[in-house]
């Protein structure tokens, strides 16, 4: 561009390259966000550059005035700039604080702004609790619909139908004249024909429910499938997936979750409830400007919503808060902890008011054990932990292999057919066995149950009917296993194999599918079997030294239900690698403080064993499978590489795409944007010196140039683009320049070329950076993005670097 005006970068700005170098090399920020103190910035920037307006120096970007619509926002499948978002919120809060003393209205606005977060938590808790209650009631009714119908009212489930019947005995409380099986309705009350009719109706209803679920997901909300927790973790780390937390996803996920659970597939509703709660939070965020316009603040709300989801799923508000802190959240300040606790409390209270299970409890399988555990029982508890770790690691590998096959073969092109085939296989194999025919929640409730004299379950069918009642509660002393118990043992063994295999193929299909309940079911079955074995061993060998003193003849010392609970925690921990939150959730389920130690032992053993076989939990494995740009905080970087080894451009690549603070025209900038796909560009003093000035985002640049062409008079392709504060004098009849100083980030994070990558990775994790510029003696060398780090880590782990691409 041969232009004699100020567009040729030859005017005297009063600032030398050396002065700019000195500036970029002396700023140090002790906190996670650059200081926004206007006095500090003005004092530093006056050193050699001259006075700057506060909008240029006092803020990271001039976004408070919102002069150009769209500037400061993000495109789909991009990562937010945590530093910029926190700076925006800090500026907004400072402005409100300074104005509140000026008038009563400003004071009221300040109070409402401070209270808006608590009001938002209240709304999230109320809606999430109401939706969870509706899902529980609907799923229970539709699950029972596969077995029959209530004559008193079609809307009644089996249990509700028989509640008011006076012809129901306690031993046969599931049988009443008002409830009719499908065989009875079709005129075949008993015999082989009745079995066949009930079998066919069970399979037909299961296929219908699953077909409706997968069709609704595919047609209306593709994001409603799966668990949702891997995507929630990725979103909370700063990634943007438009529509994943939208209203259509909420509606379809709520409806199809009921259908999927009712179909009898080996899945649970607990994981998807976290997704449902986060959808509620995202929708309510649009009611408050503070959260609608700030992506970082919105993610604080989503972290609290994740706690709400677990709270209503398990009836464990404290466990939900710890789950969000330990497993899901990327940024969890103390303020979010308080609000998470409040939202989880409101959600639990709402669910308790609805009372979906009719037992005045928040969950279906609430139990209370009355017998203490003995120190020697830690050995079988450790064995359950080992089993949980082994199964968790094996499940993750098998499920990821199957999901990868689904992605890379034609199988992924037929999601409806896959769901129907898995449902058909599940229903056909599940119906003959009563422990697989019942829902997973009912199965866990049955396995957790502590036998008493009035129990009619086969798991409580012991020999020696005339036995003494234990001194503690109404439990029974150890007895010899009866015929019904032996039958139950064989059925549970078959159910264990069935659940272990079918869950591998079920999790990850195009229907809402949680993993908490199936994992707990596998562990509960294994634990109950081990508990029965220990009980019989103590009964027949009570004279052994290990049983003397605490498990003598006639004593009630072994509780198989406790083993089931410990096994459930072990298997869930082996799959998800949860520890503290898992123990608290299981403690809130049972209400017994004295069983925390067995749960801790099994959970830690499970995690150690699973970590020895593979460091990733199921959610981290699915994040890597889908190629989400997620930096796992728990993963250590142990390689001795430098920033210069990872930055772009590398040897053989073209020069780094960059802008100059002056000297470029609108046409040249637009050509650079069109020829590249980068999310941002460094701004330097000149291409010869390459002294760094700042960084500008691609989206902001495109929107600003488009806005200038539409609304600024005289802007053409030959117009100059300036990133300077002051416009130098220009010749007469010169084209008006386009000033883009307001969208320039004047304090981009930089590292030197010799910075160890271990430090760079730590900076990206703790600050949530999108990119970091690499300099040498103040001159720009290259750029490191989040995906560059992920690709480098994959390459160091002997994985395909190109797998770190969102798919």
Automatic annotation (TrEMBL):
Mode of membrane association: Multi-pass membrane protein
Location(s) in or outside the cell: Endosome membrane; Membrane
UniProtKB keywords: CBS domain, Chloride, Endosome, Ion transport, Membrane, Transmembrane, Transmembrane helix, Transport
Gene3D superfamilies: 3.10.580.20, 3.90.1280.20, Clc chloride channel (1.10.3080.10)
TM ranges: 107-132, 199-224, 245-267, 273-289, 301-325, 375-400, 412-431, 485-507, 513-531
Top-level taxon: Eukaryota
CDD domains: CBS_pair_voltage-gated_CLC_euk_bac, ClC_3_like
CBS domain span: 743-802
Matches recorded under Pfam families: CBS, Voltage_CLC
Any Gene Ontology CC annotation: synaptic vesicle
Primary site of residence: membrane
Annotated InterPro entries: CBS_dom, CBS_dom_sf, Cl-channel_core, ClC
GO molecular function, one term: voltage-gated chloride channel activity
Presence of keyword Cell wall biogenesis/degradation: no
Record bears the keyword Transmembrane: yes
UniProt record similarity statement: Belongs to the chloride channel (TC 2.A.49) family.
Protein name: Chloride channel protein
Source organism: Chanos chanos
Gene that encodes the chain: clcn5b
């Amino acid at each position: 561009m041969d232009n004699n005006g100020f567009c040729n970068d030859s005017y005297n700005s009063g600032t030398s390259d050396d002065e700019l170098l000195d500036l970029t090399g002396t700023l140090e920020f002790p906190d996670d966000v650059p200081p926004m103190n206007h006095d500090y910035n003005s004092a530093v920037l006056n050193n050699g550059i001259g006075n700057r307006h506060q909008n240029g120096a006092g803020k990271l970007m001039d976004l408070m005035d919102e002069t150009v619509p769209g500037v400061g926002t993000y495109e789909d499948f991009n990562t937010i700039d945590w530093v910029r978002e926190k700076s925006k919120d800090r500026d907004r809060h400072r402005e409100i604080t300074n104005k509140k003393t000026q008038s009563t209205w400003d004071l009221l606005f300040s109070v409402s702004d401070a209270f808006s977060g608590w009001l938002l938590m209240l709304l999230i808790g109320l809606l999430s609790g109401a939706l969870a209650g509706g899902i529980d009631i609907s799923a229970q009714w539709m699950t029972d619909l596969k077995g029959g119908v209530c004559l008193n009212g079609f809307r009644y489930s089996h249990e509700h139908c028989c509640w008011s019947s006076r012809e129901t005995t306690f031993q046969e409380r599931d049988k009443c004249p008002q409830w009719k099986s499908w065989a009875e309705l079709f005129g075949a009350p008993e015999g082989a024909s009745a079995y066949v009719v009930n079998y066919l109706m069970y399979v037909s209803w299961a296929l219908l429910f699953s077909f409706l679920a997968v069709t609704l997901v595919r047609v209306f909300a593709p994001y409603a499938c799966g668990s949702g927790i891997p995507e929630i973790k990725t979103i909370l780390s700063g990634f943007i997936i438009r529509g994943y937390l939208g209203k259509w996803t909420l509606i379809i996920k709520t409806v199809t979750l009921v259908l999927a659970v009712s179909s009898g597939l080996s899945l649970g509703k607990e994981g998807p409830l976290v997704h449902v709660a986060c959808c509620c939070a995202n929708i309510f965020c649009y009611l408050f400007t503070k959260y609608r316009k700030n992506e970082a603040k919105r993610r604080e709300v989503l972290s609290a919503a994740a706690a709400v989801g677990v709270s209503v799923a398990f009836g464990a508000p404290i466990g939900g808060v710890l789950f969000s802190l330990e497993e899901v959240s990327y940024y969890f300040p103390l303020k979010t902890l308080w609000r998470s606790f409040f939202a989880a409390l409101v959600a639990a209270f709402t669910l308790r008011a609805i009372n979906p299970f009719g037992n005045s409890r928040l969950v279906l399988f609430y139990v209370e054990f009355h017998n203490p555990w003995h120190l020697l029982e830690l050995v079988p508890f450790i064995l359950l932990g080992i089993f949980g770790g082994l199964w968790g690691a094996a499940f993750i590998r098998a499920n990821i292999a199957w999901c990868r096959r689904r992605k890379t073969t034609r199988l992924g092109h037929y999601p409806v057919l896959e769901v129907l085939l898995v449902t058909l296989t599940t229903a056909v194999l599940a119906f003959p066995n009563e422990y697989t025919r019942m829902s997973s929640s009912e199965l866990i409730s049955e396995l957790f149950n502590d036998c008493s004299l009035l129990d009619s379950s086969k798991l409580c069918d012991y020999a020696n009917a005339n036995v003494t009642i234990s001194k503690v509660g109404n439990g029974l002393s150890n007895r010899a296993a009866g015929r019904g118990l032996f039958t139950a043992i064989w059925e549970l063994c078959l159910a264990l194999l069935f659940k272990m295999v079918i869950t591998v193929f079920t999790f990850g299909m195009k229907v809402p599918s949680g993993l908490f309940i199936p994992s707990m079911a596998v562990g509960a079955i294994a634990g109950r079997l081990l508990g029965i074995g220990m009980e019989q061993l103590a009964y027949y060998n009570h004279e052994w030294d290990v049983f003397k003193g605490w498990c003598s003849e006639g004593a009630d010392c072994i509780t198989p239900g406790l083993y089931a609970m410990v096994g459930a925690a072990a298997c869930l921990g082996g799959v998800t690698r949860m520890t503290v939150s898992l123990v608290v959730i299981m403690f809130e389920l049972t209400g017994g403080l004295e069983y925390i130690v067995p749960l801790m032992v099994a959970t830690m053993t499970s995690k150690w064993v699973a970590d020895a076989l593979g460091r990733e939990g199921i959610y981290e494995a699915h994040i890597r499978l889908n190629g989400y740009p997620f930096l796992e905080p728990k993963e250590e970087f142990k390689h001795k590489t430098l920033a210069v080894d990872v930055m772009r451009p590398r040897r053989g690549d073209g020069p780094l795409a960059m802008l100059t603070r002056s000297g470029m025209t609108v046409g040249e900038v637009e050509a650079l944007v069109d020829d590249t796909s980068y999310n941002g560009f460094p701004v330097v003093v000149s291409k010869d010196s390459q002294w760094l000035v700042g960084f500008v985002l691609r989206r902001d640049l495109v929107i600003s140039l488009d806005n200038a062409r539409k609304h600024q008079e005289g802007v053409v392709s030959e117009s100059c683009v300036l990133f300077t504060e002051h416009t130098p004098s220009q010749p007469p009849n010169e084209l008006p320049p386009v000033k883009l100083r307001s969208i320039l980030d004047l304090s981009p994070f930089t590292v030197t070329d010799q910075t160890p990558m271990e430090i760079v990775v730590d900076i990206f994790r703790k600050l949530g950076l999108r990119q970091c510029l690499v300099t040498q003696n103040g001159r720009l060398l290259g750029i490191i993005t989040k995906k560059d780090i992920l690709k480098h880590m994959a390459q160091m782990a002997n994985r395909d670097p190109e797998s770190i691409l969102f798919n």
